[in-house]
Amino acid sequence: MNLRHVLRGTAAGLLLAVCLTTPTLALTGVVDAGGSPLRVRKEASTSAAVLGQLPHGKQVEILDTATNGWYAVQLGSTKGYVSASYIKLLEEAAVTATESVVNNAAAQSESVYVKVTADALNVRTGPGTDYEVAGELASGKVVKVLGTQDGWYQLKQGYISAEYTAPATAEEALEQLYIRVLEGPLNIRSGPGTGYSKAGSLAKGRCVKVVSVQNGWYQIEQGYVSAAYVEETDYTPVAASSRGQELANLALQYVGYSYVYGGSSPSVGFDCSGLVQYSCSQLGYSVNRTASSQLQNGVSVSWDELAAGDLVFFKKPGSKTSKPVTHVGIYIGGSQFVHASDYGVGVIVSNFSDAYYTTGYVAARRVAV
After folding, report:
1. Are 348 and 329 in contact (CB under 8 A)?
2. C or N: which end of the chain has fewer Cβ atoms within 10 Å?
3. Domain 27-92's class?
4. What does the CA dihedral 366, 357, 361, 120 come to, rounded to 10 degrees?
């Protein structure tokens, strides 16, 4: 592997190259549990306590193997165990340097991070421009690198060209770190443990910024939440520098609110088109009530032209309805959109790379101009 065209002679670049070519992780896998979530346990046994769940298709880092067919994996900042029967291995990393070099690199950096230097950088499904685009990273975005291949960095969500990045620190990554609640309502504690008093709660799907990480707990502005019930996310609020971004920001305020069929206000809850209609109305934009009729509002926008605030429309794959679309959300940038998802889920932020939205995408309309 040749990283010289990316890490031109800098000390930081040398450290990055050492870390990436000598990973401490031996294996990477994907949860393959037949469409169901996979339980993560405290010990390598079905009788051990459940720490949390990993969704089907989730990519995981395997820390080590345990006895009787179990893998040790990372769940947030906590180590847990999953049955190897439900993990599909992706690759085996090679150790290419001496033990002393590895130990020196590990002592200096627990993880490897890079920062995007391009105005916008495509995330692809494989290490090359021939692979499909799975998303996009904005300039300045700091991401964790899981591995390298022929001048490409492997991330949790795909691959990016190393040519358009620069070394970054864990501290820079923490400044951009958000978590999404997987199970809610999730208690917020006044300290990092269940013995501390309750300071509030977060609804399922809610995204919040992380202040620090310690002993299996994430510190957020309001207190502490257990890492067992959240996942780290690439969600980043957009800055309100345009009317479209202002609309996206406004809709993001309702992440965590309940899904209610026919709902179109914060006091009641939202369905998908209700969230869109209410958010638009707050900025003086009048749009129709249903997803199908909202497809007539604004002007058409191509996939390549998507910008924050654009309405994005979907139709459930295999649906036999005559309606042109069955779902709508508001694009927030970075290949993500905010939407009122379904009962028990509420208003959340989702990625276009999720299978349902990749195959079900229909069109986009721009109302905020």
Report:
1. no
2. C
3. mainly beta
4. 60
Phi-psi region of 284 (alpha: psi -120 to 50; beta: other; left: phi over 0): left
State CA 166 to chain mean position distance: 21
How do 207-209 and 178-181 pair as beta strands?
A: antiparallel
**What values do phi and psi take at 326, rounded to 5?**
-125, 0
Domain ranges of the chain: 11-23+95-174, 27-92, 177-233, 243-366
DSSP string, 73-123: EEETTEEEEEEGGGEEEEEEPPP-S-HHHHHHHHHH-SS-EEEE-SSEEEE
The catalytic residue among 19, 207, 280, 339 is 339
The CATH number of 243-366, from 3.40.50.720, 3.40.50.300, 3.40.50.1260, 3.90.1720.10, is: 3.90.1720.10
Q: Annotated catalytic residue: which of 19, 207, 272, 280?
A: 272
Annotation says 5 is catalytic: no
Are 220 and 208 a contacting pair, CB within 8 Å?
yes
Residue 339 designated active-site: yes
Is it true that the peptide bond before 185 is cis, omega within 30 degrees of 0? yes
Residue 272 is a catalytic residue: yes
Catalytic position from the list 19, 207, 280, 327: 327
Quickly tell me which residue has 């080590």 as its tokens. 64
